[in-house]
Every structure is written in C-alpha cells, then in structure tokens.
Write a structure and sequence with these properties.
By secondary structure, this protein is of the alpha/beta class. The protein has 22 helices and 21 strands. The strands form 5 sheets. The chain has a 9-stranded mixed β-sheet with strand order 6-7-8-3-2-9-10-13-14. A 6-stranded parallel β-sheet has the order 17-16-15-18-19-20, with helices on both faces. The longest helix is centred in the middle third of the chain and has 23 residues.
Length: about 575
C-alpha cells in the first residue's frame, strides 16, 4: 500500500510521490461530469457527484485525473408546449470558451472504421492551488466521417448503437488518450457506473495476454442505481457490428454469454465494488447476488453548493471548515439570529428569480417547500398531490411549492408526470402557489437548495440509491422531509435533522411495501409537526437548521468520500489529518 502523508496541503502531491505534481495514480472515468452550468456535460446526480469528487480531490491534493466525453449539444434545454408537454432543444455551447484543445489524437476501431478521438482539457484548481485535470473526449472534427462525428453530440442521446459506440470511446478511447498524454503510472482506474466498462477490455489488450486478475487489481467500480434503466446491456449481435474481431474475441472470453451487461462487467473485473449508501449496498448485494459489494455513501462538494451568506457565517465562527468539513459539528453554536438572517437572504434570491422567470410574487414569510430532481416516475413528484383536498386544507395560506427537473427525452412517463404537476398547479394555485421552474441546472440547483425552507423527497423505495440534493440543502441549513431511502436513512434523526416519510425500512421490503403509508404520513407530519414548528416555534426550527448543518454536513461531503475511496480502494492512506 502506498502512503500519503503531508506536512501541509500545499505539498500534498510532492509528499505522496516525491515527484512532479503532474504524476497521477488514479483515473476517474464517468459518462458525465458536472463542473458548472456553462459546461453542460451532465444530466443529473451521477455527473454532479463526479464533478464534486474531482473538486474534493483537487482540494485534498489527491493524484487523480478525470475522463469523460464532450457533448457539443449538451444534455438538452427544456421547454413546454401549450399542453404542458416537455420538448427538448439542443444545449449548444462553445467548448473553446471553457476548455483547452490538446494536440493529442488517437483512434479506435468502430464499425470497421478508424474513429479519431481528440481531447479537450479543463483543470480544477483546489483550495491550495493543486489541480486535477479532466479530459473531454471528442470525435466531432473533420478527420471523422459525418456519422462518427455525432458520437459526441448529445449526452444519453441517440439509439442503443450510438450508446454502445459512446461507451467504446469512453472506455477504450479514454485509456488510449491517457497513455498518449503520458499517464503511464496510473495504478487505479475508477469506473463511475458501468459506462466505461470497456476499459477492462483495453487493459487486457495492453497486457498482451489474458489475465483477469491483473485487470481486477487495477479497477474500482461504483454502481449507482437499482433501477433497470440505469444498467446498459448490449447483445453480441450488436457488438459484432462495432468492434474489431480481436477485441470481440477477447470480450467473449471475458463475458461468455449472449451479451454484455456493463454492470456485470464492472462486478467481474474490479477488486473493489461499492454502492453509494449503506442501504444501496444492501439492496445491490441482493439484487445482483454479489456478496462483496461494499458501501461508500455519497457526499457533496461544500464550496460548490454553499450559499454566500452561510459560507461567510461559517468562516467567521468555524475557521478552517472549508478543507476540514468535519469541523461543522461546531455549527451547533452558531448565533440563531445570524443564521436566520442569512437564510432569509438566500430565500429572497430564490423568490426574486421566481418572480423574474414566472411573474409569481411568492412571499418570504410563507413556508417554502422545494422538490427538484430528474423527473422519473419512481421519484413520485406527485405524491404530495395524492390528496389535493387535504393538501389545500392544511396548506392554504401556509405553503408554497417550487418544483424543477427534466425528464429524459425518451421517458414518456416522466414527461407525463411533469405535465400532471403543471396541470394541477393551475387548479391549486389560488390556494397554494405551485411553481415549476424549467431548465434545472447547477445554478438553479444552488438557488433552490439554498433558498427553500424544506426539501421534499418522495422516491419509491428502495430505488433511491443515495441522493445528493438533500445533502446540498443540509449544508445550507435546510431540513429534509424524505422517504427513508438512500442517504437519508443514515442522516435522519426525527425532529432533529428533519422528518421521515412513511415507515422505517426493513430487509424484507426490498421490492414491495405499502406505498399508501407514505402519503398518509406526509400529510400528517405536514399538518401536525412541520407547519406548526415553522410558524409557532421559530427557536426549534432554527435549532434544527443548526443540527442539519452540524450533524449531516460534517459527514455527507466529498472530502470524506474521497478519503474513503483512497483508503478502501485506491491504496492511499491519509495520515495526520
């Protein structure tokens, strides 16, 4: 095992290797990476987690490099028809304005053609000036055929053949680009979901002989979802049309079946496999019958998601918290009046945005609930509308709701869910203002997770592997009101850090439980606990805000996540921190 000791943060990489800061031992591969809104190469939680991980690696001086694809049309910009149906428009941007084009080029054989791949770079600069580079792979240039240039147009766009080609580019092309850039000392390749799984095939080719164990020693795999749509599967009759004969023969030896599950590829050829919360690891062990799945619960990058007011407040009262978020336990002693004032400032920024974008003049003294995430049916954004009569009875004059989130372009159920919410809002708005903000981006995500009073999360369990939006809220003193799934099982203390929805989970409710209990509990707690506390017991509400910063945010951050991966999976031991 390597050792990673450092006298100061600024000498982190030199202390680790005794070499130049460009020396890297960990390569982090992800289909999407979210850095900022102006680089729209992310769709949601998977990409934002990847960006937060790399930012914390830069803060901590971890010798890491990131690899992803460059999507010239981004994910998509969201708009709505008169019938409230989501439509998608390209999210065009200029890579040259954000990234640096490198001279390096490699090729990968796809559909019997040599597809040229080049790389753009972006450097994340950490708190001490240490940088972590991210390489964006690009096929959209003149040396490629028109159909090959489209491979790096859209994130999660195109058909299954396009997805297969994209994943070959990421896994095989990504490793070849790293080698061409001079990264010959990588010891660990971290696959953030199965999309980059073909990297294992390229590692096998590099060795020149068949040695599965040698590949496993170099690979770490994180699975992110128990939902079937999140696990790519390619039949061999499709793969045969895309890969060279030599690559296909090796792959069939690695995966002797009718096709390739990218998740199973990750399981088979990794020495460390993890889920992204304790519950998710438990669910995944049963779902995939893989007993060695461990857990590293997700987190968020504090400096990316914290509001200006909370940041200044914490810096005044808890010096040094920025690079040691564990110190946030001291938030229990924050002055109540100061915390309330900075939260109200964040709330006013959000309500001003709502007014500018929608014309709705929401009130700063009304309990404001936020719900924003990918619009998938299992996330049940409509659960709070399951009893509109009761909702209006308990919430009239006391609640206002702000929603946001995109449905995948091919998810008709998700689009129908958004349409339902928009249609309901027109009926309920005379009693309870309900706002749906389009184009959920990182910038809007910051506004919402900083500015609402309460964060609502109602997934059909156990499908919420982790969830990170609620962690962003916690850092800003916003309590969670959530189904007990994913990270919230670990962060929840009833009436202390927030509130639960529905019964406590057990090992027997892996697939089926009484969903009606969730709706009943949601309305009961809104009526009997949450609304009375907000309006009648301000001291308790503010104390809960302190609790959520101190108890949740001191643990659910990517500094802790990166350290866990270093010690459990990368062979890097932190000492003296």
């Amino acid at each position: 095992m390597s050792s990673y000791s450092r006298a100061t943060l600024g000498r982190a990489i030199q202390d680790f290797t005794g070499q130049d800061p460009s020396f890297r031992t960990v390569a982090y591969f992800s289909m999407e990476i979210g850095i900022k809104s102006s680089i729209p190469t992310y769709a949601g939680g998977l990409g934002l987690l990847a960006g937060d991980m790399l930012k914390s690696a830069a803060d901590l001086g971890v010798p890491m490099v990131g690899v992803t694809l460059l999507y010239r049309k981004g994910y998509f910009e969201q708009a709505f028809t008169k019938e409230n149906w989501q439509i998608e428009k390209p999210s065009t941007w200029d890579p040259a304005a954000e990234l640096t084009l490198l001279p390096n080029q490699i090729s990968v054989s796809i559909q019997s053609r040599d597809v040229r791949i080049r790389a753009w770079s972006y450097e994340i600069s950490g708190l001490t000036g240490y940088t972590v580079p991210i390489y964006f792979l690009d096929t959209d240039f003149e040396l490629n055929q028109p159909e090959d240039r489209q491979f790096t147009w859209s994130l999660y766009g195109g058909d299954i053949l396009c997805r297969l080609c994209q994943e070959i580019i990421l896994g095989v092309g990504g490793l070849r680009i790293l080698r061409d850039l001079g990264y010959n000392n990588i010891e660990t390749f971290h696959l953030n979901e199965g999309h980059a799984g073909f990297l294992t095939l390229e590692l096998m080719r590099e060795m020149g002989y068949y040695d599965p164990q040698k590949v496993r020693e170099q690979v770490v795999f994180t699975t992110h979802t128990p939902v079937a749509a999140g696990h790519d599967y390619f039949k061999y009759d499709l793969i045969e049309k895309t890969m060279s004969e030599d690559a296909l023969a090796t792959l069939k030896r690695m995966m002797p079946s009718e096709g390739v599950s990218m998740t199973e590829l990750g399981f088979r050829y990794s020495h460390f496999v993890n889920g992204v919360s304790k519950k998710h690891a438990e669910v995944s062990r049963k779902l995939f019958n893989v007993p060695n799945i461990q857990n590293v619960t997700n987190g968020i990058h504090p400096m990316t998601w914290i509001s200006p007011g909370i940041k200044n407040l914490l810096s005044r009262h808890i010096p040094g918290w920025e690079n040691e978020p564990g110190r946030l336990i001291q938030a229990l002693a924050l002055p109540s009046d100061e915390l309330w004032k900075v939260h109200q400032a964040s709330k006013m920024r959000l309500l001003t945005y709502v007014l500018e974008e929608t014309g709705w003049d929401l009130k700063s003294d009304i309990l404001t609930i936020g719900f924003a995430r990918r619009a998938a049916t299992y996330k049940r954004a409509d659960l709070i509308f399951s009893d509109i009569k009761r909702l209006t009875q308990i919430g009239h004059g006391k609640l206002q709701l702000i929603f946001s989130g995109k449905a995948h372009p091919k998810d008709e159920g998700g689009k129908a869910l958004i349409q339902e919410i928009l249609n309901i809002s027109n009926k309920v708005n005379p009693f309870i203002p309900i706002i749906y903000l389009p184009n959920y981006t990182m910038d809007l995500g910051r506004l919402m997770t900083q500015g609402v009073d309460l964060w609502l999360n109602t997934p059909l369990r156990p499908r919420e592997a982790s969830g990170t939006s609620g962690m962003k809220c916690a850092l800003n003193g916003v309590m969670n009101f959530s189904v007990l799934d994913g990270w919230w099982i670990e962060g929840w203390i009833e009436d202390i850090t927030g509130w639960s929805i529905g019964p406590e989970p057990s090992s027997s409710d892996l697939h089926v439980y009484n969903e009606s209990q969730d709706a009943l509990d949601l309305f009961d707690k809104l009526e009997k606990k949450i609304i009375p506390t907000y309006y009648d017991d301000r001291n308790k509400w503010i104390n809960m805000m302190k609790n959520t910063i101190a108890i949740n945010s001191c643990y659910f951050h990517t500094h802790r996540v990166v350290k866990e991966y270093c010690e459990k999976a990368y062979g890097i031991a932190f000492r003296g921190m």
